[in-house]
Hints:
By secondary structure, the chain is an alpha/beta fold.
Amino acid sequence: MDLKYLRTFKTILETGSFQKAAERLNYAQSTVTLQMQMIEQELSVKLFDKIGRKMELTEAGKELLPYINAALEAIAQMECYGKSGKELTGALRIAMPESLLVYQMQPVIRAFREQAPNVRLSLQIPNCYIIRDQLLNGSIDIGVHYDVGGYGSSLITEPLADYPLALIASPALDEKERDFIRTGQRKPICLVTVDQNSIYHKILNGYLEKSDIVLEGEMEIESIEAAKRSVASNLGVLFLPRYSVEKELEQGELIELPLEPSVKNITAVCSYHKNKWITPAMELFIRLLRKEMQTPKL
């Protein structure tokens, strides 16, 4: 079986479609389709089903995935065999939510680029739950994300740092609407969210439900900066890790609304698959994570 067919298979998993895989690999889409047909003929199984616009693995594809991952891992190890530890090359695929990438990870990425300039670094910004799934199916090497649980025994996960959460609003918000402590309220305030499936959105919804506080409407904006600007314009309230709004709070552009102490911090973690070979590039990135985020090795 041609190795490039297996790499194409993994690229489809990473991108979600034949077309996007073709674009990344600089192939014609017909080439990607042909390669998958060749694998399916050789293995006598169907690997993908098209669900809407996204290609999903069949049950047979899921069963074969560990073997394909193992084959690609073995090739990666052979390609690095005999190289000096200083010669960091190859690719490193990392996924993390936008808040961590923008406000916490820049020093880590800068240090990595300085020490490994020849490594092709791919940074993706999916939801934390999607990151967990990507780690399990092998489509990324490292996940830096908030702890959402459900890792089973397949993933190695170590905590990096705890971060407080903050409910923020515009200074123009009416004083009587700033109370999120008293239970049993109906507020004419819109909840602005960056991702309805984020862990901190789920935490706030749980808090509001427990406190019997109902907000008027919800608006999803898929950009933290745009969401913050909307809240500063008094279009609603927003719940995020506090580090992502510290500048605006200090400058008085936003205010923090008090919540009950039961609202917990969120924990950032680093995860990778237990069966994955730790490449020199992965080892360096994880080491920099521990150093920059001041967490001792577990």
